[in-house]
Amino acid sequence: MAALSIQERKRLRQIGHALNPVVMIGGQGLTEGVIEETNRALNDHELIKIKIAGEDRDARAQVIDALIAETQAEVVQKIGKIALLYKKAAKQNPNLSNLVRHAHLGNK
């Protein structure tokens, strides 16, 4: 997968600003269920926010890195306990894709 350009990243951040986290990763860390839910959310929405619990910054970064490796997604932005992930869907669903539903945000 090619790295996102600066313009693409900026547009995805604009869209991501309006989103709420759809995957919450708690104290158990990265489980099969979390990976499956993240894959499902990425497939449906393409751009999602995840929230990682815990105060240890390095541990949160490791969880994000492991999740990226498992899902083949790309990190658009990390702020504190929130990460914005992007993965192009094989077949985009216009009713679910955050890129389609919030396209007007990126076209200012």
TrEMBL record:
<dbReference type="InterPro" id="IPR017924">
    <property type="entry name" value="RNA-binding_YhbY"/>
</dbReference>
<protein>
    <recommendedName>
        <fullName>CRM domain-containing protein</fullName>
    </recommendedName>
</protein>
<feature type="domain" description="CRM">
    <location>
        <begin position="2"/>
        <end position="98"/>
    </location>
</feature>
<dbReference type="Pfam" id="PF01985">
    <property type="entry name" value="CRS1_YhbY"/>
</dbReference>
<dbReference type="InterPro" id="IPR035920">
    <property type="entry name" value="YhbY-like_sf"/>
</dbReference>
<keyword id="KW-0694">RNA-binding</keyword>
<dbReference type="InterPro" id="IPR051925">
    <property type="entry name" value="RNA-binding_domain"/>
</dbReference>
<dbReference type="InterPro" id="IPR001890">
    <property type="entry name" value="RNA-binding_CRM"/>
</dbReference>
